[in-house]
Each structure stands twice: as C-alpha cells, then as structure tokens.
Amino acid sequence: MDPALSPIVKAYDVRGLAPxxxxxxxxxxLGSAFADEVGISEGRGAAVIGHDMRSSSPGLARAVxxxxxxxxxxxxxxxxxxxxxxxxxxxxxDVAGVMVTASHNPAQYNGLKLCRAGARPIGFDTGLRAIAExxxxxxxxxxxxxxGTRTERxxxxxxxxxxxxxxxxxxxxxxxxxDAGNGMAGHTVPAVFDGLPxxxxxxxxxxxxxxxxxxDANPLDPSTLVDLQAAVRDQxxxxxxxxxxxxxxxxxxxxxxxxxxxxxxxxxxxxxxLADHPGATILHNVICSRAVPEIVxxxxxxxxxxxxxHSLIKAEMARTDAVFGGEHSGHFYxxxxxxxxxxxxxxxHVLAALAETDQPLxxxxxxxxxxxxxxxxxxxxxxxxxVLATLRERYGSYALDELDGLTVTADTWWFNVRASNTxxxxxLNVEADDAPTMERVRDDLLELIRS
Length: 451
Hints:
Elements: E1 14-17, H1 24-37, E2 46-51, H2 57-70, E3 74-80, H3 83-93, E4 96-100, E5 109-116, E6 120-121, H4 128-138, E7 150-152, H5 156-166, E8 174-179, H6 185-193, E9 199-204, H7 226-235, E10 239-243, E11 250-253, E12 259-260, H8 262-276, E13 281-285, H9 291-298, E14 302-306, H10 310-320, E15 324-326, E16 332-334, E17 340-341, H11 343-355, H12 361-364, E18 372-373, E19 377-380, H13 384-394, E20 399-401, E21 406-409, E22 413-419, E23 425-432, H14 435-450
Parallel strand pairs: 2-3, 2-4, 3-7, 8-9, 8-10, 13-14, 13-15
Antiparallel strand pairs: 1-5, 4-5, 5-6, 10-11, 11-12, 15-16, 16-17, 18-23, 19-23, 20-21, 21-22, 22-23
Helix pairs in contact: 1-2, 1-4, 8-9, 8-11
C-alpha cells in the first residue's frame, strides 16, 4: 500500500485531514480502484455518490466520480445527502455507493464510506485493503479521460417515503426539538418530518455548515448535547433528537432534558421488532447494557453479541438474518433498511413508540434502563497490550472473554476494555447493579489502567 494511503485507510472507511491527507488526486485514485473492486468498470455497472456539507466534500465527490468514470463505470450523483440516504439509494437502485463524509470528525477532516450494491458494507478485510492497494497503482499515473456517464438525481423524497413506509408514526401530537449540529440532518429531517403532521418540530442548527460553528456534530460528547437539553426543558418538548455530522447516528433526550442511553433505545427498538417478528435474532455489541439481551429474551427473541464496528455488524446481520442490531455508540441497523444503519429510522421508532402511549418518554424508558453505566472513558496508554495483560491477571478469577477487547463479568457488574484501532487509547465501559458498585469498579480499573 502506498505510504500516502496507509494513514487514512481505516478499519471501516477512509478518513483523514483534507486536503493534506485526503486530496482530490487520492480520491480519484480510490474511485478508480473502487470501480475495479466492485466490478463496475468497462460499462458493467454504476455507483451512486453522495456528499456531506464540508467545504472539501463537493470536490472530493467529483474526484471519486471521475475516477470511477475513468474506468468506464457510470455514476448517479445524488449531491448533498446523509449517509443513510446514500445507503437507501444504494439499496433501492441496487448499485454500489460512495459517501463523502468524515461523520462526526472536526471540520478539517473528510473521508469516504464505501459499499457494494444493495448497501453491502466494505471494510478493511472485505475490499477496502484491496481498493487501497489498487489505488496505489493509480497514484502518480496520468489521469485517464472519463468514459462512463454521470447522471444527477434528487433522492431525498424517495428516502423520506421509504422511511414513512418502514415506520408509521401515530397521531399523538408530539413536540420535538432536533439538533442537526449544522450537519446533514439539517437536510434530511425537514423532508422526513414534513410527512409527520402530528409532530411539531423545533429546529436547532439546521444550517448546513461544515465548519460546525455551534458545536461539534458528535453526540457521543456530552458537551454537544447541552444546548439541546436546555431547549427541550425551556420549550416543554416531549423529546429531543441529536444527530451526528452525516446523520447516521441519533441520540435521544427525554422530556426532562436527560440523555436516554443508546442501549435502552436498542432494547426498545428490539422489543418493537420482536412484536412483529417473534423468535427473531437481535444483535447487540459488547458494550451494550446487559439489559439488552435480557429484554430480547423476555420478548421471545434470540440475542447475539457482536464486536464493535458497522461492517462487522452488517456482516453478522446477513449471516444470522437478524431483524435489528444496536450499538451503544448510537448506531442502529435494520434488516428492512438494507441491513444498514440509520439514525432517522431509529428516531422514527422512538416517536412511534411514544405515540402509542400517553406517557412521557422518561416513564416509557424506565423498563429498558435497568443498570448504572459509566459511559465510555478513554485513557491514553502507550503499551495497550501490557495493560490488558495486567487486567487479565488481576481479574482472572472472573468470567473473561475476548470477543472484542477484554470483557470481565461478575454477578453484579461487568466491564469491557478495548484498544482503539487508530489512537494510543484504551476505552473502558463499566456497568453495575447500582451506582456505588459501578463507581468502585470504575475507579479501581482506572487506577490500574493509568498507573
């Protein structure tokens, strides 16, 4: 792999500083390689391309398209789009797809999310490494003239119609505050919510602006939720929705202004799916609350635990024919949405569930939030494997597994420690029956990890 590519080709996508690391020539080379890898060169097929609101995104999207067309592949350009809108287009049109976005990363970054026809994921071991190696051959070569065609298509209304068919929302009037973080939800939320006459929408930071002037579009960071929490309280809204930069993740705020755990949202949506699909398989990753598999079993389903990461989860969904999968990071995956993740579909499920009751959201979620969690805590660690070895020895008398990092389970608590794929970080999640136990286990672990 060319040295220019190795720092930006990640486990699930391409991501780097733009244009310092991800330039238009590199994007063009990756587009050429992508066409060859997914078999659409020489007039054999097409790819759909979408891009987010970052200033570098239109140029990178054109470059990727030129690369595909230089190999004789056709492109369908849907322009500004959320990542889940791109997946919907890939699935609906049954063509490969490229989304130009750096998701929740700061403004100076950009990236590419790639999929095969039908929104089937491409990760490092399922095509991305091969694409990077092929792209290495194109870098520095004289650009070939485009031979494939380019067609523009507005897919937004088709995307909204698809979501309305997937998740009908009842007639209960609900006041919703949505914070787009100046990301792509500012493009998609109006189109989707226009078809929900019972919902009164209050929009926050819907202006598309890749410089993120109000806050980072990363709802995993609690500081980015503060404005939304205040707005929900001040307006007396029924709930708040926070989306990340490319709007494929959604976080929920209840009527008190309190964040709802993504694990609880996973359990709620799982129960809804199992009501329609008795005995179905539900996926949850290793850092989801243990309430998730409990509720899946209580609802008559089969829980399957997975590593963290969207390409891994999508592959496991296909293998197990799971109807739904959730990650504690706010990614939610749906079999009837081409096995892809969609923050908007998850948001509609929450609205639909709330519309079926006369309860406030906090009351509805009580049965899904059973334990006390630490949230993810990152620690900078130079020798990650040495620390993990110390933890294995220290907690060796408990149940251990290494599906993804190290998970240790006791009667009243469990924890997971995972190494970051891209940074010298260890990520810790702790959950317990009560707050004092969680705090004790958390503090003991942090002392070991940071010593």
